[in-house]
Specification:
Blueprint (H helix, E strand, L loop, with lengths): L1 H24 L7 H22 L4 H29 L4 E2 L29 E3 L3 E9 L8 E9 L2 E7 L10 E4 L4 E4 L1 E6 L4 E2 L2 E2 L6 H13 L2 E6 L7 H8 L5 E4 L4 E2 L14 E2 L3 H12 L6 E4 L12 H13 L4 E4 L3 H10 L3 E2 L10 H9 L4 E3 L6 H5 L9 H6 L2 H12 L4 H23 L3 E3 L15 H12 L4 H15 L16 E4 L13 E6 L2 E3 L1 H13 L6
Parallel strand pairs: 3-6, 3-7, 8-11, 11-12, 13-14, 15-16, 16-17, 17-18, 18-19
Antiparallel strand pairs: 1-2, 2-22, 3-4, 4-5, 7-20, 9-10, 20-21, 21-22
Helix pairs in contact: 1-2, 1-3, 2-3, 6-7, 8-9, 14-15
């Protein structure tokens, strides 16, 4: 009898040890039915073998006891998982502020999922593990879409992606049925100017923390996961907002960029740039900016049709060299092909615009082939009136009315209707044609093209988020396929900004995505048919934002 008891106890202890060892190898065995079956079978085999070695006279009896023990453990585990799932709130509301603090990309993942703060609103907090299933999934990397897809979100990360019928579903996970929908990665806009636009006004007095946060909420409403403020930040405020905003849309900033004195960006942004006249001063100011850890350095190399002084080559060479010493990349505003060539020779990392004075030539394309990481942001939104040549259909779409006040819509529409002299119209058409042709040529040559809108600037207007989606449509008009345009606005733009956790829907990536009511591969304008937006695994409360903006308009205030 003593030997029989010893055999059974040894088998149970061995089976338990096997289960623990399997957990150390991969905890994923306990996150799916298939994994549980494998772990249980291994544990029964190990336990039965050990029990038989201790008491070979009752091997079959011992195997039955070990099997019963493992099955009992499995049943208990299954019941606990179901109980935990039923008690977990599917849509708990997060309060104001951020807890825990939102990490920059590359930081360790924090669980449970973070609560993100909408300025004056809320973000709906996701359950710890959720399976989204039934949708068409566009990964954002240019690959073919996955029909009837499923993907698992654990906290703020995607852990698995595949077809619904082949993906193992974690035990206790909340399920979200997206049958008939299309899912795509959240967009990234790598060229914007924040703070100066509020409603229909355009002034430096608007550059406040409140306005910056409201603008980030507008990008979140449209499913834009990250933006770069391209060199028109004022003082310490952009860096303070970047550090503590906690908004669904990640806020990157170049701080204040570089130009000749009083020769940088236009309008009320003109004084935001650092005016430099000597190489020593340029290097010293780059060093001072570097202490704030900007996400890029911005320079303006443009004489604005002879109205301002263009940044001298010796100065931009000093800025680029010093920035690289500080481990910072440099992005240049340009308008001409010759400036693009010389900046590539000087070591610039990318361009905020595509040149539009002449066609791309073999010399430039060869230079770019030798430096494949040099990028261009196309900013076709800036010449939208010349590209469309009539009032576009998206002005009457529901999402436009949801995010913009009637006054903003009227201002946007008027730009398409204001008459101009025939010569002015012809120049605009020719410039737009050269720009779209150059975008097509760069794309064909394999140059890295990302999405930028220049929204918030002189030509960009205050149509934050909407312009990002329309830019996709303009890329298609320039000759890209819808899939290529989406890849430019997701994967490539994220790569340009160094956001390795964004851009595609794949295991290990941040769970930032849009749920659409229609397929944008059929018509790129369908990216604007947004059903839901998710940021780091949490659903953005778009209804709260829409209600807030509607209330501001009704009360007669500028929409904030």
């Amino acid at each position: 009898m003593t030997r029989t008891v010893a055999g059974r106890l040894a088998g149970i202890f061995a089976a338990t040890a096997a289960l623990i060892a399997i957990g150390f190898v991969s905890i994923g065995f306990y996150a799916s039915y298939g994994g549980l079956v494998i772990a249980g079978a291994v544990a029964i085999f190990v336990g039965s073998t050990v029990a038989a070695a201790v008491d070979p006279t009752r091997a079959e009896n011992h195997a039955g006891v070990v099997a019963f023990y493992i099955l009992a453990l499995g049943a208990a585990y299954f019941l606990m998982a179901l109980t935990s799932a039923s008690l977990a709130p599917a849509r708990a509301l997060g309060g104001p502020g951020v807890y825990p603090p939102m990490p920059r990309d590359g930081a360790p993942v924090t669980y449970p999922p973070q609560r993100l703060n909408l300025h004056g609103g809320l973000v709906l907090q996701a359950a710890t593990m959720t399976v989204f299933e039934g949708a068409r999934l566009i990964a954002g990397d240019g690959s073919a879409p996955i029909d009837n897809a499923a993907f698992v979100v654990d906290g703020d990360r995607i852990t698995a992606v595949g077809r619904k019928e082949s993906l193992q579903t974690p035990l206790g996970a909340r399920r979200v049925d997206l049958t008939g929908k299309t899912v795509m990665p959240a967009l990234v806009d790598a060229h914007v100017h924040l703070g100066y636009r509020s409603g229909t006004t355009f002034t430096a007095a608007n550059y406040t923390r409140e306005n910056l946060l409201d603008t980030l909420d507008r990008f979140a409403y449209f499913g834009v996961a990250a933006v770069l403020e391209a060199g028109t930040g004022r003082g310490e405020l952009p860096f303070q907002v970047r550090a503590g905003a906690g908004t669904p849309t990640r806020y990157l900033t170049a701080g204040s960029g570089f130009a000749m004195p009083n020769a940088g960006p236009g309008g009320p942004m003109r004084d935001a740039a650092r005016g430099v006249t000597t190489e020593a001063d340029a290097r010293a100011q780059v060093q001072e900016l570097a202490r704030r850890k900007p996400d890029l350095v911005k320079i303006w190399v443009d004489d604005r049709n002879g109205t301002v002084e263009k940044l001298e080559p010796n100065l931009y060479r000093a800025i680029i060299d010093e920035a690289h010493k500080q481990n910072l990349r440099v992005m240049a505003h340009i308008a001409t092909l010759d400036d693009a060539k010389d900046l590539v020779r000087a070591g610039v990392d990318g361009f905020a615009h595509v040149f539009r004075d002449r066609a791309a030539d073999a010399e430039l394309l060869a230079m770019l082939k030798a430096r494949p990481n040099v990028f261009f942001l196309e900013t076709l939104w800036g010449v939208r009136t010349a590209i469309y040549q009539e009032t576009p259909a998206w002005l009457a779409e529901p999402i436009t009315r949801e995010a913009l006040s009637p006054a903003q819509i009227a201002q946007l529409r008027d730009a398409f209707l204001v008459p101009a002299a025939p010569a002015t119209v012809q120049r605009a058409l020719e410039e737009a044609d050269r720009l779209t042709s150059n975008v097509a040529a760069l794309h064909k040559a394999g140059v890295k093209l990302g999405l930028g809108t220049d929204t918030g600037g002189v030509t960009g207007g205050g149509y934050f988020g909407l312009a990002t989606h329309v830019e996709l449509e303009l890329l298609v008009k320039a000759g890209l396929t819808p899939a290529q345009a989406i890849a430019a606005g997701t994967r490539t733009s994220a790569e340009i900004l160094g956001l390795t956790n964004l851009g595609t829907l794949a295991p290990g990536k941040s769970a930032d995505f849009l749920v659409l009511d229609a397929n944008p591969l059929d018509a790129i304008g369908n990216t604007r048919k947004i059903a839901r937006v998710y940021a780091r695994g949490a659903e953005v409360d778009r209804a709260a934002l829409k209600a807030r903006w509607a209330a501001s308009t009704t009360a007669g205030r500028r929409p904030m």
